[in-house]
Amino acid sequence: MYTIDFQKPISIHFIGIGGISMSGLAEVLLGRQFRVSGSDMKASDITAHLESIGARIFIGQRKENIPAHTDLVVYTAAIHETNEEFAAAKERGIPMMSRAALLGQIMNNYARSIAVSGTHGKTTTTSMLTHILLQGQLDPTVSVGGMLDRIGGNIRTGHSDVFLTEACEYTNSFLELHPFYSIILNVEEDHLDFFKDIEEIKQSFHTFASQTAPDGLIIINGDMSCTKEILAGLSHQFVTFGFRKDNHYSATDISYDKEGNGSYTLLVDGKEMGRVALHVKGSHNVMNSLSAIACARAIGLPMEQILTGILSFGGTHRRFEYKGHLDNVTVIDDYAHHPTEIRVTLEAAAEYPHDELWVVFQPHTYTRTLAFLPQFAEALSLADHVVMADIFAAREPDNGLVSSKDIVRLLSEAGTDVHYFPSFDEIESFLLSHVKGHDLLITMGAGDVVTIGEDLLKTQSASN
User: How far apart are CA 283 and CA 289, in angstroms?
Assistant: First the structure.
């Protein structure tokens, strides 16, 4: 394994540098005086930014893009061996490393590293912790899987020994990490195009937990049925968080304001530690905040700074993100693409002021849609009206086994008002003629469904 040493900057070429995670790692290395080049299939604001801070960027992927004196080539899981640059690097004998391995190597250069894992909530919790760490003036380096206004994007390069990142379980990429603080938010079935079943997923999270530094700390959801399995045989220190009062960190007297933002009394080992106010919605964010507080206290931050930092967090892009008003209709966008995420988002929406709730849902990947078909219908039934778009294929070919119409059928059988349209133009036309008054419209999914709400708002703006 090639070792990244901040004291010995080298020349690194990134295949697929325009991705949100790859670009963040490239920016961290640029800040440490590494020489960075990279390619992507199309130009973007991200590639333009990297170029402005010193990266050499190539649009299109060709073997001649790799500079002559390249020490290391980094690639994403989406890059195949047939890729010209990948093949050229192998032919030239240049050391190669996956994006996940590079993240682990970068993390090893920080004494106080924090990895946020879990099936859901990683981006939100990482962002929440970022606000707390900045309030505590710890000057962290941060890599987050979404755009966070507080740091002006998805990456922040600090100058302390604190490094905070998301840790994704897909393809077991988080097993490249050896953090000092490991956060496990939840463990559920997902990514079944990679994992065989929930037992294999639990085993992966157990391995992730085992790779926490021996003198580090595991911060884990104590409400899960598999918590003991995840911790089995480990000698690490750990703290639990959750709604049950037997957790080290728990919440009581939970309430929500008129916009659905939560507040609660924090209990630490059963002792009241004051009132926590959130500027984000839903019970799932109460859980996320408990894990962030547990981590911040373990680092040594005082409660006053933690509470101020957590209140300053108002969410990230594509997580119950307010997009605008279509006359009096509130338009929200949310990244939810798993039944659990849909359910908690719609439960949070119930606390938000509105007349009727409309959800435009775009399923993400054929594998996930087929695996959780009844669960998707059950979660979506919490809305008053559902409009279905076609499945966003992402990395998968159409397996011919499932379509959005299967969810439509289940919702219709359950009595939910549901509609399907094969194009975004048809969906937008339907919404313009049906949403009204003080309705709440949520575009939902991990694909490009966000453009529906944005297009509707642009159309209104152009007509005014």
Answer: 10
44 neighbors 51 (Cβ within 8 angstroms):
no
pLDDT digits (tens, 9 = 90+) for 6-19: 999 999 999 999 98
Q: Is 320 helix (H, G, I), strand (E, B) or coil?
A: coil
Q: Is 187 exposed, middle or buried (0-12, 13-18, 19+ CB in 10 A)?
A: buried
Using CA atoms, how far residue 411 sits from 106, 203, 255, in Å, is 46, 34, 31
Question: If you compute the radius of gyration of the chain from its CA atoms, what whole number of angstroms results?
Answer: 22
**Which phi-psi region, left, alpha or beta, contains residue 275 (left: φ > 0; alpha: ψ -120 to 50)?**
beta
Give the pLDDT score at 463. 64
28-40 per-residue burial string, b: 16 or more CB within 10 A, e: under 16: bbbbbebbbbbbb
Q: Give the pLDDT confidence of 403-442 residue by residue, as tens digits.
A: 999 999 999 999 999 999 999 999 999 999 999 989 999 9
Given this model, what pLDDT does residue 320 score?
79
Gap between the terminal Cα atoms of the chain: 59
Residues 155 and 144: their CA atoms lie apart, in Å, by 6
At residue 162, does pLDDT exceed 80? yes
10-19, 170-179, 291-300, range with the lowest pLDDT:
170-179
Backbone torsions φ then ψ of 85, nearest 5 degrees: -70, -40
Residue 316 and residue 148 in contact, taking contact as beta carbons nearer than 8 Å: yes
Overall average pLDDT of the 195-213 stretch: 94
Whole-prediction pTM: 0.80
- Number of Cβ within a 10 Å radius of residue 165: 30
Name the region of 139 (left: φ>0; alpha: ψ -120 to 50; beta: rest). left
Backbone angles phi, psi at 53, to 5 degrees: -105, 15
Task: Please give the positions annotated as active site.
Answer: 122-123, 166
Q: What rounded mean pLDDT belongs to the chain?
A: 92
- Phi and psi at residue 316, to the nearest 5°: -115, 170
The one-letter amino acid code at 179 reads P
List, as one string, the DSSP characters of 195-248: -SSHHHHHHHHHHHHHTS-TTSEEEEETTSTTHHHHHTT--SEEEEEESSTTSS
C-alpha to C-alpha distances, 414 to 38, 153, 377, 388, nearest whole angstrom: 50, 42, 9, 15
